[in-house]
Amino acid sequence: MNARDLIAGVRRNLLLVILLAVLGTGAGLGIGLLQAEEYKTTTTLFVSVAQGSQSSIDQRYQGTLFTQERVRSYAALVTTPTVTKPVIKALGLPLKPEELAQRLEVDVPVDTVLVNITARYGDAATVAKIANAVTTRLVGVVAELETPDRTQASAIRVKVVRDAAVPERPSSPRLVLDIVLGLALGLVGGVGAGILREALDTRIHSAADLMRLSDQPVLAMVPKDPGAQAAPLVGDRFGPRAEAYRKLRTALRFIGVDQPAKVFLITSPLMGDGKSTTAVNLAGALAAEGAQVALLEVDLRRPALARMLGLVGEAGLTSVLTGRAELAEVAQSTSGPHRITVLTSGPLPPNPSELLGTQRMRDLLRRLAQNFDYIILDAPPLLPVTDAAVLVPAVDAAILVTRAKKTRRDELREALTVMETARGRVAGLVFNCGAAPTADRYGPYVHDVAQPTMRDTIGDRALPADGRAMRRGNPPVSGDRAVPPTRG
Known about the structure:
Blueprint: H1 3-12, H2 14-34, E1 39-49, H3 57-77, H4 81-91, H5 97-102, E2 104-107, E3 114-121, H6 124-146, E4 156-162, H7 175-200, H8 207-213, E5 218-223, H9 240-252, E6 263-267, H10 275-288, E7 293-297, H11 305-309, H12 317-321, H13 327-330, E8 332-333, E9 341-343, H14 352-356, H15 359-371, E10 374-378, H16 387-391, E11 397-403, H17 409-421, E12 426-434, H18 439-442, H19 454-458, E13 477-478, E14 481-482
Helix pairs in contact: 1-7, 2-7, 4-6, 9-10
């Protein structure tokens, strides 16, 4: 995960970052308001060794080292009951010795003979009294320890060089600091949570993710449309979805320049990625340009074309492959001005993979390729079943449809591996249900008023069919070959 991925992850989890930042700010404010006022003041002691005026430099240096060693011991005495008990008694504090010890801080600066004693308490005047009383008591304790028999003066001298002053303002709570710290911690936590969530989320979120994961070209990026499930055919010729399918149509022209590809298999890693919608709208985009298009439903497990296009599904591809009907008897045409010849799945067989892998299926594709400019196969997903993999070698190229925030990285890799194992040719990828491009990104060239809608192009219903054989909506036939419908 590089810096760009991290930034993208934070942007995708921006709401989480903002939420934790707000919570952190609120927590800082709450802590600040709930804290009781506390005052702090400091007193300083200087410790030295009594030396004569005739002492040498070496003696003075040795005396300083001795004092520095003793100072650390004196500092440790500050929080002992020997010091705290008399202070509590003298000032009448409602504290236990250990409680007062917790309110005292001792600091010995490095390479000095100074002792800084800081006291904390909820009253300004009292805290100054505590600090001064502790200092006075420590001086007495040191004198007692250094002259146990009291027969001679102590060589150690402890002098107060700074008395504790009454503080003018409380040291805590520091409301502004608490709020800033809360905000900072919230932001750090939010960014961290966003990065962690991004690292654990293996879904593909953008076309940029798709390009980084695969060497295959992204042929089209179809933006999300909440109404697409109810109305799969694009009805807005000015919309970005219609433009995306036109871009996909354009991309197909450059596949196999020396030997143009005609038979395309549309599949996806898993169900629900939008392969059937892509197949239908691609067929419509090709037909709108005047091409003769045949659309075959080779998903013999969960067929959808009959429902999407308002066609009859009782007979179709399986009827032809099993020899129960001729192609001309079951092929149907859509009702638009640029008709598409559609072969629905027909009765669902118990052995779809075996049926699709027969020589009859390959012969059918060859016959259709002789009479149509393009043959679009709406295939089942690659990973759950082998049906699509069986068909891959029989087509010119396959198009893999992925869905934003659904298809996972490992699913994409596995699907491409299946294609490679089947020795299929992958034309490219379609990124479905991504973020819609903004109008100001492409300017006035987003919409082409000359383009009809897919619904207008191919219609959304079948032409009438009579009871025994669906001929009235079918293209004319010659023998057992389907002939493209007449334009117009």
